[in-house]
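Narrative of accomplishments. A recurring question from our advisory board has been how the design workflow behaves on a single, concrete structure rather than in aggregate. To address it, we present the structure tokens for one chain from the evaluation set, followed by the sequence designed for it. No filtering or post-editing was applied between the two.
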């Protein structure tokens, strides 16, 4: 109605009134569309400054049309003339230019008649072309984004275009055409400045364009044609026409390019999203500007009488409603031009809306939810965890890392993974949102590493997929992650999991990898095999160690069951704490007893600071060292305790304040620490003097446990009978070694195995084939061949499995003695009986085919079937009488030929076995839930955690998942990994790993005082209480009394009990299953059937006679091989060495006797050391003597034990 009212207004109204009425002035303004080429000059007095009532919109439009079509005509005319000139004059310009480029010198010689003036004529065009080319190149550089100037210019043009569009939005509220004075209108002046700049930029683009015609028809060029010339016309006519200035909105299409130039957009999704949005918005705004122009102007052929007043934003609304096909009808086009435009726009706009909008929504919805950046918090460290991020791996990691038994963990955990978490994992992150953040990305991308602030992280932990089908590929992926992280931040500390032992060598190739700075590689295959190997020496030790290095909460049980005592031990963990200055000057056994009795802490090792001036290995971890090691100031101790607060007692202990305190909970920080700090200074000279024997000890690794000077070795007199040119140990002296053997020489057939009466051996049942991944059997054999065992103490190892698989492993096993192979299958009872599995000390069941099955429940089917098969076997009891070992029926483990026996030789061997259920077995499992199938008589719930199940508590099952806790333990204390590797690997060192990386096999070395000194280190053993020097404590004695007695008398450190499951029940027929009790309290009552876990010292004299017997037994059949395989030494040198060795032996004996006499009275209440070091063997009973006689009568019918090609 307002539009109709405006149409009735007389044309002769006053100009001043009409200029003030903004709404009235909008209706008569006119314009024509670009398709309308007829010039119409209507008479209209509505324009205030036109006395003749004449509109000038045609002048603005004509300037643009003349510019566009005039330039287009000139370009086409130039191309036409150039083409006609080329055709008519036959000037093959391209051919000449090609000849000049190829051979410019010959082109002149080819003319023959060329002269000086002619040469000048050819040179002048060449110089003109070069000048034009240089200008063109300069213009191209100016408008390109390859240089800083070009980027600034491109961004400036875009910004000014958006500014011009903003001026259009402001002017759209004014009449379409109005009189304006250029010198008084500020917006017109700014717009004029912008368009002058656009004109200059247009000139640069025109010069740089290769094809002028296509450049003239570009969108940006068309925008300049219809926006730049009208501005100059408006200055000349002193009037403004809104016209086609809305075309500046088309510049928004270049928005994504600008953001890429500024390095803001980097991903394909973000670029695509910005492109779609910019095209959609620019088309929308441009179409709205055209509707705004024609609707407010009207149709020219209607004399502009059918116009309507619509603001620009109403037109924007109209276009959106039209594109979305809603069409409310409240705003619509009235002019013919407007309706005609809407017809065509609906076709294109609807298609664009239907395709662009869903894609935009999809891109926005697919944006990474976890794509932000980590913001570091002041005073709070953070670590980055990457690699195999799943619900299982993350939950296990967080459960151990954030355990309540640790001190307040002021560390934020940042997970980085390229796959977004599922709903369960996301819920886990939300439950720990105060300490856990997740970001989606890859550590191989430096941008993602910058997002998580890897350079300021305290450490980076890389988790491995333990269940992957290709372990080598998984290790390669983790090594690449290490390379990427170290390349970005060389000083970052990295702790990574590795699956295969041989892949650890690749980490040494990374220049910035430095284990001395905290970088660690936790090899799961190495540690898994080490745990299992230690169980072969002390059954149940794998369970105890796994519980010690895992954070478990205390579960209290009131009933007197085996679970009660087991769970009390499970609550213990390994901690480190610095010892108080009150311990300075005391020996290790004295400190250990004081900590156990008074502080209720178990000290098992210390970090000894060497006072050598050398730069290598200034700190050593000593496990249960002898009484020659004295505590220094700032000594770090390794404790077994239930939580970290208890361990603080060792740091706060003060002899002056806490000596009379009986409750360890009252031991807290006292006020006399300053006085105690001055005390060590008075003892330091004495301390240095007592520790002088450590100066020359081999100190090449942080886990050496040598107790003596290498030149003063007790028992070194055995070197007199030792062939000096025989290599018994590897080059480091840490393992027994023999010359490499061919696999055919160690293969036993079933009949040969049956004739070879094996006893006290280790049977390894391995499932694998040609395609199976290697499990690394060397890591299983090395702890069983540690040099701290005497040769006769080495348990023979028999592998039962596929010969094709064992051939692949043999390259790493051929240098170990007492190793045999029986080709077959562990599921065959005939093969198992052939290797006398009922007489073995341990049966190990491994599988190399565990990760090739999708169903997790079937991954352990072979191991479970083999275990159940062995347990269901029956054996004749008479075989128990024929235990064909050299010890006969001496109390099991005793050596009759050795006059000097250590208490550990009172260990109980396996009794006669009549059923397979009594055979000691340890089964490796991949899936923890499959442990329920191992024991059919237990009542474990399928959902019970692994450490709570009976097979795991008894030490008959082991899963690699228990090693996950080592990641957290290693982060909080990098010495923990060194300690556990020392305990389970038998003495593997970084130097040995470097040698294995070079040779992939142990290298033999001659026996020298330095290498023999490496034998002097502790080992884990089990002590029997039914007989021997501790029998009086086995029946109702206290564990604390046993602890102190063993420590004082034999330097043996007890740390656990392996007890029968039903020992607490007064039943005549008890179950033969045992379970582990870790670190019992002092008043814990013992029973005669208990086996005690202990760390025993190396006995130099225990193996003298037996060693000579074992070596002499080989001399007859291997003397010829020695002459050919071992380097000979001249006789004179041998005699000289023998005499020197004899003299050294006398000196060493004297030194040893003096040392023993000096230390006989250390830290004991009994006079003159009431507990003798030599245990007397009790006489045999009549029944046992009859068995021995029966054995002797049948021994001639039994073939001797076959030791296949043992050169040692």
């Amino acid at each position: 109605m307002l539009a109709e009212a405006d149409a009735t207004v007389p044309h002769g109204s006053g100009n001043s009134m009409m200029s003030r009425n903004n709404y009235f002035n909008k209706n008569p303004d006119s314009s024509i569309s670009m398709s309308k080429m007829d010039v119409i000059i209507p008479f209209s007095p509505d324009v205030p400054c036109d006395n003749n009532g004449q509109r000038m919109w045609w002048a603005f439009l004509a300037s643009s049309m003349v510019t566009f079509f005039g330039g287009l005509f000139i370009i086409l005319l130039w191309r036409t003339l150039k083409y006609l000139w080329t055709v008519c004059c036959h000037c093959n310009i391209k051919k000449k230019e090609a000849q000049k480029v190829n051979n410019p010198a010959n082109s002149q010689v080819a003319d023959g008649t060329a002269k000086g003036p002619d040469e000048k004529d050819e040179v002048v065009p060449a110089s003109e072309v070069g000048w034009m080319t240089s200008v063109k190149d300069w213009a191209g550089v100016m408008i390109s984004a390859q240089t800083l100037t070009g980027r600034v210019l491109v961004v400036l043009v875009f910004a000014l275009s958006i500014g011009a569009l903003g001026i259009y939005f402001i002017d759209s509220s004014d009449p379409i055409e109005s009189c304006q004075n250029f010198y008084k209108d500020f917006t017109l002046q700014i717009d004029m400045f912008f368009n002058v700049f656009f004109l200059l930029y247009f000139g640069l683009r025109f010069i740089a364009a290769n094809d002028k015609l296509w450049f003239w028809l570009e969108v940006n060029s068309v925008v300049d044609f219809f926006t730049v010339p009208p501005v100059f016309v408006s200055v000349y006519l002193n009037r403004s026409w809104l016209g086609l200035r809305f075309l500046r909105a088309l510049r928004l299409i270049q928005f994504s390019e600008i953001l890429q130039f500024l390095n803001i957009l980097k991903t394909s999704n973000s670029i695509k999203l910005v492109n779609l949005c910019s095209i959609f918005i620019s088309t929308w705004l441009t179409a709205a500007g055209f509707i705004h122009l024609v609707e407010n102007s009207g149709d020219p052929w209607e004399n502009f009488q059918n116009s309507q007043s619509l603001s620009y934003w109403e037109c924007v609304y109209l276009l959106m409603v039209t594109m979305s096909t809603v069409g409310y009808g409240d705003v619509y086009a009235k002019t013919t031009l407007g309706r005609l435009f809407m017809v065509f726009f609906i076709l294109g706009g609807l298609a664009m809306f239907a395709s662009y909008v869903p894609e935009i929504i999809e891109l926005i919805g697919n944006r990474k939810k976890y794509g932000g950046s980590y913001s570091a918090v002041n005073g709070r460290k953070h670590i980055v965890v990457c690699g195999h991020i799943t619900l299982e791996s993350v939950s296990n990691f967080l459960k151990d890392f954030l355990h309540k038994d640790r001190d307040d963990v002021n560390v934020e955990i940042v997970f980085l993974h390229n796959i977004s978490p599922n709903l369960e994992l996301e819920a886990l992150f939300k439950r720990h949102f105060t300490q856990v953040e997740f970001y989606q990305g890859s550590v191989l991308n430096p941008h993602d590493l910058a997002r998580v602030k890897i350079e300021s992280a305290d450490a980076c932990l890389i988790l491995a997929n333990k269940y992957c089908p290709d372990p080598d590929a998984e290790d390669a992926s983790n090594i690449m992650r290490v390379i990427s992280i170290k390349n970005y931040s060389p000083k970052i500390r990295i702790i990574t999991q590795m699956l295969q032992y041989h892949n650890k060598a690749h980490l040494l190739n990374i220049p910035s990898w430095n284990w001395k700075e905290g970088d660690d590689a936790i090899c799961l295959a190495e540690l898994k095999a080490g745990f299992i190997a230690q169980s072969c020496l002390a059954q149940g030790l794998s369970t105890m160690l796994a519980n010690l290095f895992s954070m478990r909460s205390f579960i209290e049980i009131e009933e007197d069951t085996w679970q009660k005592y087991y769970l009390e031990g499970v609550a213990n963990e390994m901690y480190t704490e610095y010892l108080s200055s009150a311990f300075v000057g005391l020996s290790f056994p004295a400190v250990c007893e004081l900590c156990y009795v008074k502080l209720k802490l178990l000290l098992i090792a210390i970090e000894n600071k060497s006072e050598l001036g050398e730069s290598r290995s200034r700190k050593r971890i000593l496990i249960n060292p002898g009484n020659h090691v004295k505590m220094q100031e700032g000594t770090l101790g390794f404790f077994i305790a239930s939580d970290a607060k208890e361990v603080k007692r060792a740091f706060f202990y003060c002899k002056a304040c806490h000596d009379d305190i009986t409750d360890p909970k009252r031991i807290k920080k006292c006020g006399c620490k300053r006085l105690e700090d001055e005390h060590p200074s008075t003892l330091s000279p004495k301390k240095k003097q007592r520790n002088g024997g450590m100066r020359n000890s081999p100190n090449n690794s942080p886990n050496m446990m040598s107790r003596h000077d290498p030149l003063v070795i007790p028992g070194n007199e055995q070197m007199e009978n030792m062939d000096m040119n025989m290599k018994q140990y590897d080059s480091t002296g840490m393992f027994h070694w023999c010359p490499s053997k061919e696999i055919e020489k160690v293969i036993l057939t079933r009949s040969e195995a049956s004739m070879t009466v094996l006893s006290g051996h280790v049977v390894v049942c391995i499932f694998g084939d040609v395609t199976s991944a290697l499990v690394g059997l060397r890591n299983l054999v090395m702890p069983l061949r540690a040099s701290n065992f005497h040769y006769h103490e080495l348990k023979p190892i028999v592998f039962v499995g596929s010969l094709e698989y064992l051939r692949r492993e043999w390259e790493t096993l051929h240098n170990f003695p007492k190793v045999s192979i029986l080709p077959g299958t562990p599921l065959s009872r005939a093969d198992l009986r052939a290797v006398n599995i009922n007489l073995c000390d341990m049966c190990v069941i491994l599988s190399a085919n565990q990760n090739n099955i999708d169903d997790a429940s079937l991954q352990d089917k072979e191991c479970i079937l083999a275990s159940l098969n062995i347990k269901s076997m029956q054996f004749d009891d008479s075989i128990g009488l024929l235990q064909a070992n050299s010890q006969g029926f001496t109390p099991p483990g005793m050596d009759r030929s050795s006059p000097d026996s250590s208490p550990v030789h009172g260990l109980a061997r396996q009794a006669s076995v009549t059923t397979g259920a009594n055979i000691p077995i340890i089964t490796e499992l991949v899936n923890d839930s499959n442990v329920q199938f191992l024991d059919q008589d237990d009542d474990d719930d399928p959902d019970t955690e692994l450490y709570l199940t009976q097979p795991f508590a008894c030490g008959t099952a082991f899963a690699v998942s228990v090693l996950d806790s080592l990641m957290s333990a290693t982060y909080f204390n990098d010495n923990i990994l060194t300690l556990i590797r020392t305990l389970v690997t038998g003495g593997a060192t970084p130097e040995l790993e470097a040698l294995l990386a070079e040779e992939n096999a142990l290298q033999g070395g001659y026996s020298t005082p330095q290498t023999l000194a490496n034998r002097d280190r502790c080992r884990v053993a089990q002590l029997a209480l039914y007989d021997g020097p501790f029998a009086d404590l086995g029946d109702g004695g206290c564990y604390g009394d046993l602890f102190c007695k063993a420590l004082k008398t034999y330097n043996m450190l007890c740390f656990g009990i392996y007890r029968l499951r039903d020992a607490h029940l007064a039943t005549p027929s008890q179950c033969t299953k045992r379970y582990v009790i870790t670190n019992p309290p002092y008043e814990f009552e013992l029973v005669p059937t208990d086996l005690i876990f202990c760390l025993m010292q190396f006995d130099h004299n225990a193996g003298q006679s037996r060693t000579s017997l074992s070596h002499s037994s080989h001399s007859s059949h291997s003397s010829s091989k020695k002459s050919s395989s071992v380097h000979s030494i001249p006789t004179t040198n041998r005699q000289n060495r023998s005499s020197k060795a004899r003299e050294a032996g006398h000196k060493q004996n004297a030194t040893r006797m003096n040392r023993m006499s000096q230390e006989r009275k250390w830290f004991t209440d009994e006079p003159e050391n009431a507990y003798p070091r030599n245990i007397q063997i009790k006489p045999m009973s009549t029944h046992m003597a009859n068995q021995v006689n029966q054995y002797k009568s049948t021994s001639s019918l039994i073939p001797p034990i076959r030791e296949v090609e043992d050169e040692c």
